Amino acid sequence: MGTTRKKELLKEKVQHIDxxxxxxxxxxxxxxxxxxxxxxxxxxxxxxxxMVDEKDCAIILTLAGSLVSAGLKKVIVDLMERNMIDAxxxxxxxxxxxxxxxxxxxxxxxxxxxLNNDNELRELMIDRIYDTFIxxxxxxxxxxxMEKISNALxxxxxxxxxxxxxxxxxxxxxxxxxxxxxxxxxxxxxPIFVPAFSDCSAxxxxxxxxxxxxxxxxxxxxxxxxxxxxxxxxINPSTGIFMMGGGVPKNFVQDIxxxxxxxxxxxxxxxxxxxxxxxxxxxxALSGSTLKEACSWGKVDIADEQMVFGELTTTLPLxxxxxxxxxxxxxxxxxxxxxxxxxxxxxxxxNQEA
Length: 354
Hints:
- The protein is an alpha/beta fold.
- The protein has helices at residues 2-9, 25-31, 36-53, 68-81, 92-103, 118-123, 136-151, 160-173, 181-188, 201-212, 222-235, 247-262, 291-296, 312-326, 337-343, and strands at residues 58-63, 87-90, 109-110, 126-129, 132-135, 157-158, 192-193, 219-220, 239-244, 272-277, 305-309.
- β9, α12 and β10 form a beta-alpha-beta unit.
- The protein is globular and about 60 Å long.
């Protein structure tokens, strides 16, 4: 009875939207002459176009919220394939529990947010993400795979970027995950940072790895994450940030400007900044803090910044569609920052002794 019921609930897969099929950019341009969030969205799209058109501007994407499970994976992959994303800072859920999870051959399913009993879902080992279902048994396989990858690592500290590269390599070596964020990032040399890496399925796998290997195990060095992301700013002074939601990824990427200055370098503020979010200043938290406020910290230039207040499954496809159909992405090249970070030699800053 339980197996039949579980199959009944895990029946209809979430489909990832394809923004390349229809050009909606003319409609977005028309929104510039409207009001409220329509005008904000059009301005945000125009700013992202500037990022794309400026071929020497490194575009850093941040991901917070349940995005891949909601059907936005292909949107992100489409931008990556066209060299419109040079680095990613994300929550662990999007990268491990959702993208890597799907890359292993599993799916997210359309669920009903209010009609199903969550106690019943728990008994059936079905996890709910709002109106989306995920099979807990599949998720535990993902946890086990992360432990397997961890066990193969040399016992030492790693940045999250380095571990995610190993995840991408695992997918390539096992012919898995074509069309996934993790695999494509590995193939194109795009660094992915997850500052709170243990806060996802990776955490379960790493804990199990360390529990079974108490004296010799791999660890995650979050300070190295911060340093490696700051290196991108030193390598490529002109940067734009395209932020989905807020949270740790938002602050992490904004802070690299200040970090570079702390290390003794004259770093430019992020030249462009767009944030798509439902959080606002009433929250009293960083997610809703304005990008203009970030200027006071020396993080974001206010000449080209825009916040769009709307839920991401509706706002991101339109702006990403604009980037694809209006942006001059054909003149952009792969930056392959993974390679550049690994070969980077720390220079002596002007105010430091040789």
